[in-house]
Structures are given as structure tokens and as C-alpha cells.
Amino acid sequence: MNRDKWRELQGQFPEFKVAAYAECGDGWYGIIQDTFRDLSGYGFSGTVVQVKEKFGLLRIYLDHPEWTQDDTRKLCRDRCSLTETLSETTCEACGDGTAKRRTIGGWLSTLCDACNEKATSK
Ligand SMILES: [Zn+2]
Q: Is residue 109 included in any domain, yes or no?
């Protein structure tokens, strides 16, 4: 993700630490922002260790402070799973909600039809 965009997102959540960069496309900005907002609501105060695309899906890895209660851990874990599910249909390039997972040049990518066309016509 674009560094400036990422820094802007980090700045919106001073209550927890966020990895220095995100290894995914800008199109997932919205679903990451929604996730962070919910994590904040659950009282998450640890570190977002990693945000990355893996096999065409968005993975968010968290590290909780030791004293974090089990129900908070579970809420956060479930929320990150939901984000992974949402990323199956959210275009990694533009954020469009009609994306599909596709194999492009041997790599799995989640793109909408328009972005897929752009990616494959290069
Ligand atoms: Zn797209």
C-alpha cells in the first residue's frame, strides 16, 4: 500500500501500534480501516504486527498485551477472520466489491473485472 495512505491510516489509531507498512494493494484501505475501528472499539491496545496479502486474501496479524482478556482476543481474532472473508470479494487494486480471486501469472489475486483486464493486458 502507498506509504502516505498507510501513514494516514496509522495516524487515525493512536491507541495501538501498527506495522510500518502494509504488503497489499490500496484497494483494501477501506476494509482495513473498518477492521481497525472495530478493534479499537473492542479495546485492542497491542500491536498490529503484519498486514499482508497472502494467496489473494488479506491477513492481519495481531499481538496482544499479556493481560488481554480471552474474550477480547477472540473478538479481535474473529474480526480479522471476517476481514479475510471480505477480502475475497473486495478488489485489492480499487476497492470494488465485485472482485473475484484469480490466478494472474501464477499468483492468486483478488481483482474486479476492470482491474483484472488492466493487469492482464500489460
Ligand atoms: Zn478493481
A: no
Q: 57: part of which helix (H) or strand (E)?
A: strand 57-63
Burial degree of 95 (CB within 10 A; 0-12, 13-18, 19+): middle
Q: Given the C-alpha cell 478493534, which residue does it identify?
A: 39
How many domains in the chain? 1
Establish if 122 belongs to a structural domain: no
11: domain range? Answer: 3-88
Judge contact between 9 and 29, C-beta under 8 A. yes
pTM of the entire predicted model: 0.95
pLDDT tens digits, 46-95: 999 999 999 999 999 999 999 999 999 999 999 999 999 999 999 999 99
**Residue 113 in contact with residue 120, Cβ under 8 Å?**
no
Cα(64) to centroid of ligand 1, in Å? 33
Distance 42 CA to ligand 1 centre (A): 31
75 CA distance to ligand 1 middle (Å): 30
Q: 119 in a domain, yes or no?
A: no
Q: Can you state the angle between helices 3-11 and 29-41, rounded to 10 degrees? A: 20
